[in-house]
Fold this sequence. Notes:
The protein is mainly α. It has one domain (25-132). Helix content is 51%, strand content 0%. The chain has eight helices and no strands. It has helices at residues 12-29, 41-45, 56-64, 68-71, 76-79, 85-89, 96-109, 121-132. α1 packs across α7 (96-109). The protein is globular. The model has no long low-confidence stretch (mean pLDDT 82).
Amino acid sequence: MPITLRLTPANGQEAAARRELTDFVERTSGQTLAACYQCAKCAAGCPLAAAMDLAPQQIIRALQLGQPDLALPSQTLWLCVGCQTCATRCPCNVELPRIMDALRLWAETRGRSASMMRGSSTLQGQRVAQVWQPTHNQSV
C-alpha cells in the first residue's frame, strides 16, 4: 500500500502537537526517534510484518517527519507483540517495542484503541492467521 507523505508546512498549533507526541514517545520509551536511519532490519526480522499495514520503520519515519496521523491509526501499533526481534537486529540499538508501547499509551489516553485502527479487527485477525498458518505438514 503506497503511503502519502504531506510535505506542507504546519501551522504553529500543529507543529506544537507533533512535537508534544514525539517528546512524549521519546520520554516514555527512553528511545531517540532520530537514531533510526531506516535500514528496515526490524521489518525483515518481525514475525508479524506481513500482517502489518505499515512496516515498523515506516512508523518511525512518519514520526520523524512530523506526521503522526499516518502512524497513530496504523494496525502496526496494535500488532506488535514486543518480542524484541527488531531490537536485537537494530544496528542503532533502537528498542522499537518500547516506542510501540509509548504510541499505544498515547493513543489510549486520547480515546483511540485497537478497534479504531485502519481496517477491521476481523481483517486483522485473518491477516495474522495467514501469517501463522503452517505452509506444510511435518510429522515428527
